[in-house]
Design a protein that fits this description.
The structure is a single chain. This protein is of the alpha+beta class. Helices cover 36% and strands 21% of the residues. An eight-stranded mixed sheet has the order 5-4-3-6-2-1-7-8, with helices on one face. A six-stranded mixed sheet has the order 15-14-17-16-19-18, sandwiched between helices. Strands 9-10-13-11-12 form a five-stranded mixed sheet, with helices on both faces. The radius of gyration is 36 Å and the shape is elongated.
């Protein structure tokens, strides 16, 4: 029979599809298996709707065979098959889908779930094959036809012989090139792994004729080969089963096998929805962060299935960044797929599902926090940093979602607490939520400011992660309580009487304070009498929005622009050093400059900053020690 041309701009479209739309050649098997499943679905539905006897679900299967020497892969189904006209119309016109038409015609009927939608998946076969043959016999017909093509040049259809209804697709696999390895698709283990990866939950058995070896009877070392037909796919997805059917062990085993973890998840989320967004989701919260979790190499996302067929291994759009630690999958029959089934169209349906998943994860985390606190604390050690980044990211859009999930170390409780727990314990006259920043909890506890605030009976949140203060600044307030850094210039924790005393001392020693400021030559904004220090001689505080911790963090970033907080040097007027400073102002201003510089350097060290000139600092200390 003469060659027929495709009924579209075939060469250009086929070229585009094979070389551009599909990025992974292995996808061909998923597409052909999905088509076979659709063909069986159509016949099964026909049997149900028309009362055809002798066709039960258990009678259907998909068989895959490989012939390495002949470079052949065969995919066979006993589905509804195709007539000559259907072969011509469905395979001769790229992007015309018989499955889509069937679905539209029966959209109001139940128990119909057809995977194919756009009619191009079949042509993915040409990514690995230089010739494709389709032998098909329609159910109820006495005639069979063979469709064959070597690609964009065209196809031909001829009458052939086939005993039973259904379709056999035969792929002649291309020879290897320098760029591409096609031999891998002739290996049985490779085909088996692709079935498990993409089509494990197709609801009909996918069988393979596997070569086996066994010892010959009556011999010790002689073996003979035989062929065994095995079912490769599991058919029934775990997530499609009722929760009442499943035990914790079932979920844990599935998680560890599916996501290659050695430990059980701390939380399992098995949920489904119907209506505007119909889907089933099975998600897991791991116990520990993967080794690369906080690196650019980590890729977030849930597996995405359409009616049991995996169409995307990592669908990042289903998870917000702050929940990127969640592993799992979503299965929906309602998602709009694009031409390749490999890329998901960002449509309303996907956004609806993503929004509901986000709310479900939030609710589950809150439930764990309320009812399984020890387990939540362990989870937060692994992934709390990501939640705090989520509060700060995107200009704080998600801060209200996350504010009740974050924990900070409490100076009073000696453990991690929520903001809600802190507020409930606040003193009656306390206006603000106090916090302190530092490298470790132990170092923060030693800060002069910490000890002073603690002596007043106030609880302090210790912030040890770089993002912590930025997250609280983004949040702004919690239950109308403002966040205040204990190193702030305006801490306001003293009585009116103490304020008056500080103001009096400041006025009396204004010239001394101004001299010390000038001696530091622009390193600080001002020198002041401290209203917070009781035992320590000196400390640093800040004016304005940039704190000392923010200065540290921002200046660690790879940029030429450096940030500097408006530093204030605070002097303890009750400490003996203050009397020495006053005496030096009257008698030895040069020495006062040396003392001022030493005090400033000490304040820097207390805050964890490096001294600008360590040699000069040690020389000044030694000079004073030898006098």
């Amino acid at each position: 029979m003469a060659m027929k041309q495709f009924k579209t701009e075939s060469k250009r479209i086929l070229d585009l599809m094979v070389n551009s739309i599909y990025t992974h050649k292995e996808i061909f098997l998923r597409e052909l298996i999905s088509n076979a499943s659709d063909a069986i679905d159509k016949l099964y539905y026909k049997a149900l709707s028309e009362g055809i006897t002798g066709l039960g679900r258990e009678d259907f299967k998909i068989n895959i065979r490989t012939d390495k020497e002949a470079r052949i892969i065969r995919i066979e189904d006993n589905g509804i098959g195709m007539t000559k006209d259907e072969l011509d119309n469905n395979l001769g016109v790229i992007a015309k889908s018989g499955s889509l038409n069937f679905k539209k015609e029966n959209e109001k009927k139940e128990d119909i779930d057809i995977i194919g939608q756009f009619g191009v998946g079949f042509y993915s076969a040409f990514m690995i094959a230089d010739e494709v043959k389709v032998l098909s016999k329609a159910f109820g017909s006495n005639e069979a036809y063979l469709w064959q093509s070597k690609g964009a040049e065209g196809y031909k259809i001829s009458e052939d012989i086939k005993e039973n209804h259904g379709t056999v697709i035969t792929l002649h696999v291309k020879e290897n090139t320098e760029e591409e390895n096609y031999d891998e698709f002739l290996e049985q283990y490779r085909i088996q792994s692709l079935i498990k990866k993409y089509s494990d939950y197709i609801r009909y058995p996918i069988t393979m004729d596997m070569e086996r070896s066994k010892k010959k009877e009556g011999t010790e070392n002689e073996y003979e080969k035989y062929t065994e037909t095995v079912t490769v796919n599991s058919m029934v997805p775990l997530w499609k089963k009722s929760k009442s059917e499943l035990k914790e062990e079932d979920y844990n085993n599935f998680y560890k096998e599916k996501f290659y973890d050695f430990t059980d998840p701390v939380r399992v989320i098995h949920t489904s929805a119907e209506g505007t967004a119909t889907y089933t989701a099975l998600m897991f919260i791991p116990e520990k962060a993967p080794y690369n979790y906080y690196t650019r190499e980590y890729e977030k996302g849930l597996e995405l299935y359409s009616s049991g067929v995996m169409i995307m291994e990592k669908c990042s759009d289903l998870l917000p960044d702050y929940y990127s630690f969640v592993k799992g999958l979503v299965d929906s029959q309602d998602l709009s797929l694009n031409i390749s089934r490999e890329m998901l169209q960002h449509d309303r349906q996907l956004k609806l599902i993503a929004g509901r998943i986000e709310k479900k994860i939030t609710a589950e985390l809150k439930s764990m926090l309320a009812n399984q606190r020890e387990k939540y604390d362990e989870f937060f050690k692994a992934f709390g940093l990501q939640l705090k980044y989520g509060m700060y990211a995107d200009y704080g859009v998600h801060k209200d979602t996350l504010k009740d999930l974050v924990l900070f170390y409490s100076s009073n409780e000696k453990k991690y607490v929520t903001l809600s727990e802190y507020v409930k314990r606040m003193k009656e006259n306390q206006k603000d939520i106090y916090y302190a920043c530092g490298e470790t909890v132990e170092k923060i506890a030693l800060l002069p400011q910490t000890q002073t605030v603690a002596e007043k009976g106030y609880e302090i949140l210790f912030l040890t992660d770089d993002v912590d203060e930025f997250a609280l600044k983004t949040l702004g307030k919690y239950e109308e309580k403002e966040f205040k850094n204990i190193s702030s210039d305006k801490l306001d924790i003293i009585s009116d009487e103490e304020k008056k005393e500080t103001e009096k001392l400041t006025e009396e020693n204004s010239e001394l304070l101004e001299f010390m400021k000038e001696a530091l030559n622009g390193k600080i904004t001002k020198v002041k009498i401290s209203d917070r220090l009781t035992k320590h001689p000196v400390c640093l505080s800040t004016e304005g929005h940039i704190t000392l911790e923010m200065e540290k963090v921002l200046n660690q970033m790879p940029t030429d622009e450096k940030v500097k907080a408006q530093r204030v040097l605070e002097i303890n007027a009750k400490h003996t050093i203050f009397e020495t400073l006053k005496s030096l102002y009257e008698n030895d201003k040069d020495k006062l400059k040396v003392y001022t510089d030493i005090l400033y350097s000490q304040a820097l060290l207390i805050e964890g900053f490096a001294i600008e000139d360590p040699v000069d600092y040690t020389n000044k200390i030694c000079s004073l020690m030898t006098k």
